[in-house]
Amino acid sequence: MTSEHTPAGPAQTPNGATPDGATLGDAVRAAVQILAEAGVPSPRVDAELLAEHLLGVGLGRLRAMMLGDAPVPEGYAELVAERARRIPLQHITGVAHFRYLQLAVGPGVFIPRPETESVVQLVIDRLEQLVASGVRRPRVVDLGTGSGAIAGSVAHEMPEAEVHAVEFSEFAHAWAAKNLQPLGVSLIRGDLRDALPELNGTVDVVVSNPPYIPAEAIPNEPEVALHDPPEALYGGGTDGMELPTAAAASAARLLVPGGYFVMEHAEVQAAWIVSMLSRTGRWTNISTHLDLNGKERATSAVLAVPPTE
Ligand SMILES: C[S@@+](CC[C@H](N)C(=O)[O-])C[C@H]1O[C@@H](n2cnc3c(N)ncnc32)[C@H](O)[C@@H]1O
User: Do 233 and 84 have their domain in common?
Assistant: First the structure.
C-alpha cells in the first residue's frame, strides 16, 4: 500500500511558483495552479480544503482570510505536493464527508461517493413509510459497507432502525468499526453471499453498493485505480456482475416478504440489473432511480409475497 504521508519537497509550477507564497491567498492561488497542472479535477476546491484542513476555520472564514495578509499554515506545501501526486484528498485529510457524517477513511477503504447519498435517501424514504405504517423498529442490512457510509447514515438519520452492516475486507472492516461503533450499528466481518443467516426472512430493507466494475474496465483516475482497494471496485466476472447478482440473492434470502432491496450500479448496468431481478421471478415493483446528475445509478425492488394456498 502506498504511504500516504511520504515526505516530499514542495510542488512547483513550471514558472517556479510554490504554495509557500507570502500570504495565504498567494499560497492557495499557487496551489490551484500546481494541482490543475497535475490533472486534479477540482484544483480550487482541493487547494482550499487542504488549507482549511490545516487551519480548521471553515471554508467561509478561510476565504475571508485569503483576502488579507494571513500567513501560510505550516505544512501546506507538503500537503499540496501529496495531492499533486494524485493521493486522494480524503486520504490526506483522513475524512470523507457523506450526508451528515464525517467518516474516518484512509488506505484500504473505498472513499464514499456523492451518488451513494441518493441511494441512502431511497432507504430513508422507505423506512419513513414503514415507521408511518406502524413498524416500530425496522431492520436494515447494508451489504459491503466499506467505511460504513450507508449503514452509518441510516442509523444517524433514522434512529428507530436496527442497522446491520457486513464487510469482507479486514482493512475496510477496521475503518467501518471506527465509524459505526458510535452510531450503534451492528457490524460483522463476513461475505455478503452468506452473511447473517440468523436474520433470514426478517429484514425490512437490504441496501448494497457492491463492487460492480468489469475486470477489464480499469478506472482512469489515479485516485481510484491506485488508492481505492481492488476488492471494492471489481464485481467479478467479465461484466462485473457476480457480486451484484450475489447481493440480490442474499437480499431475497434476508428480506421479509414485501421487504425492499436497493442496489447501486453503473449507469450502463441498469437494464441488465432489471432483467436479472425479473428473471428470478422473486421481485415486484422493480424500478431504476436517477442520481443527482440524472443518471440511472440505482435499482430497487420489493420481494414478492408468496401466494397463499
Ligand atoms: C463499492 S465499495 C462500497 C462501500 C460502501 N458501501 C460505500 O458505498 O461507500 C464495496 C464494498 O464491498 C466490500 N466487499 C467486496 N466483496 C465483498 C463480499 N464478498 N462480502 C462483503 N463485502 C464485500 C468491499 O470490500 C467494499 O468495501
Answer: no
43 in active site: no
| pLDDT band for position 307 (cuts 50, 70, 90) | confident
Instruction: Give yes or no for residue 218 having a pLDDT over 90.
Output: no
Cα(211) to ligand 1 centroid in Å equals 6
Range of the domain at 82: 24-93
Neighbours of 147 (CB within 10 A): 27
Is residue 160 domain-shared with residue 29, that is, in the same domain?
A: no
Q: What is the pTM of this model?
A: 0.91
Residues 25 and 62: their CA atoms lie apart, in Å, by 9
Centre of ligand 1 from the C-alpha of residue 47, in Å: 30
Active site residue 209: yes
Count: domains in the chain: 2
210 catalytic per annotation:
yes
Which residue in the list 98, 110, 168, 261 is annotated as catalytic? 110
Residue-wise pLDDT tens digits, 122-163: 999 999 999 999 999 999 999 999 999 999 999 999 999 999
**Residue 62: left if φ>0, alpha if ψ -120 to 50, beta else—which one?**
alpha
Q: Whose CA is nearest to atom 6 of ligand 1?
A: 145
Instruction: Report the separation in Å between the CA atom of 145 and the middle of ligand 1, taken as the mean of its atom positions.
Output: 5
* 45 touches 51 (CB < 8 A): no
Together in a domain, 83 and 228: no
